[in-house]
Structures are given as structure tokens and as C-alpha cells.
Amino acid sequence: MRFADPAILWLLLFLPVLGLAAFWSGAHRRRRLARFAGGAERVARFTGSVSRNRRAAKTLLLLLAVASGLMAAARPQWGTRLEPITRRGVDVVLVMDTSRSMAAEDVAPSRLSQARHAASSLVRRLAGDRIALVTFAGKGSLTCPLTLDYEAALLFLDAVDVDLLPVQGSSIGESLRVAARAFGPAGSEGRHRAVVLFSDGEDHEGGIEEAISLLKQSGVTTYAVGCGTAHGGPIPLRSATGAVEGYKKDIEGKVVTTQLKEEVLERLALETGGRYYRATPAEMEVEEIAKAIAGMDQKEHGTVLKTRYEERYQIPLAAVLLALLAETVLGDRRRLPSPEIAREQEVSS
Predict the structure, then answer these.
(1) Under CATH, which architecture does the 86-303 domain have?
(2) Whole-prediction pTM value?
(3) For all residues of the chain together, what is the average pLDDT?
């Protein structure tokens, strides 16, 4: 036997406290009655018709009802059966820009940190959907293939950094082609594939037109989240310890300012049937993307056999009802002798 919510059983430890409280209440009631009657020897006049044993039995029945109710709430289970579960959901590929421009701190604490936190929040809002992760700088890389293991996906997200890929640059088109391949071959009809792109929109390699065409052919809806600001900021260069050693400069020695390029992201989302959002500290865009994905067509991800335990809470629940019924029916008055027997007792006395 097992309990689905065993923590509730800890409340059974309070039953002795309730029993002591009931005993103290009865003793306190008798002391007050003795003061009212003018002495303990006169209490019998008022309590002669009340059975202390019956009152004790009624109290025990109430305690039994409480104990059985707690056991029912803990949901006892025994016996198992195998139940087929069909998994359905959307295939979602998160595409994360890890180019050096994402290290800019025009949004706190940095563009990449904001994108990483928003992507993690999105993963926690999904349910039943397969998730993959693609990271890109100069080239794209499938960091995590499609999986239902959200904890594994979150671990990969936590490891994302601007130095993750050796080839620097920014190739949005290449990353989208990698994302399209991550879905596998085109399957059943319906829009059950989504790409969520987190980027500042800077692209140095081109190829976005071909990527958009490939996404359309694959039936992929793209949601883009812009990270950064229009006024931009410099790109910090850090040492091995994480300290800022300076800022990236061009060939003329001037500090490079990177800005959010929303036009690229807006066009990408619009042409694939998705929507563009600018990243915000409140992450309202994450909530809207999660709702949009939840409203997409769902695809079967296979059927698995899951062990189900048979619920047996009905047994202690029946004990609760029986105990309360018995407590209600059982009176606390003493059974008095018949008038004939009472007269015989008076004559004999």
C-alpha cells in the first residue's frame, strides 16, 4: 500500500492533542458544575441521567472520524494497472543568438542573460511539447535535439554563453536552416512546428531569404524576440575571470556600438505566420508566445504505458461516515430503571 499525499499523515500526530483537549474540556465542565451545585457531593443530582461512558464513546468516534478523514485525504492506493498514454504536443526549437553582440549591456544584465532567462521561462510554461535548442554565432549548431526532458533542456540553456561556439559572427539564416533540419522530415499536415528566435537581429552572413523559404516549406511558424535597444551599446571584452578589459573596436580604433535590428526579426516572423516581440523585464512576450504555441495544432509524439495505482480512499471515507453516523445515533443519557424497579429499590432501602 502507498499514499499519494503521505505528508498529510503527519497531521495524525495531533490526534492525541485533540484527545487530551476533549478530556480537559470534560474535567473543566465537571469543576464548573460542582461550583454551581455547591459541592462535588451534589453533582450527582445534575449528572445522574448522563452516562460518562457514552460521552467517552462519542468522543472516540469523533477522533476516529478525524483519523479516517486524514487517511482518505492522503489517498491510500494499492493495486496497479497499465494505462496507455498518448503524448501530443508541438515541436518547438529555441534558437539562441550567442554572437559577441549579445554580450552588450544596454539591457540589464546583458542581452544574452535576458534572452537565456526568457527562454527558460518559456520552457517552464510549455507542457507536453518537444523542445530543441540551436545556438549560433558565425555558424549554427544543434545543441540539444528534440526532447521531452525539460530539465535537460534547461541545463543546456544554462550553459549558453557568447564563447560557446568557436566561429564568431552572426548568421541568422544558417541557424534557421539548422532549426528546420532539427524538426526532421515533414510529417502530417497541420502547423505543429514552431521556432522561437532570441536575437538582436544583427546578421553578417545573409541567407535569410533561403531560410524563410525553407521554414515555409516545412510548415514552421517563427516567433522572434528582439534583445537590446535601438540606441545600442558597446560590446565588452572580458578576461578569463569575467572582468571587463575593454570594449570591441573597429579597424579605425573606434568603439563598436551594436544596436537592435528589429526590421530583420519582424520580417522573419511576419513571413512565416508568427509574430515579433521586443524582450521586456516583465517577460509578457513569453506568456503570449506560450499561449500562441498552446493554440497550435498538436502532433502525436507516441504512446507509452504508464502504471496507474488504484485509488482506495473510499474505504477510509466510508469509515468517516459510519463513525459520524454512530456518534449521532449514540445518545449520552444513562438508561434509567423502570418505575417498578425504582419503587422496589426505594422499599428495600
Answers:
(1) 3-Layer(aba) Sandwich (3.40)
(2) 0.65
(3) 84
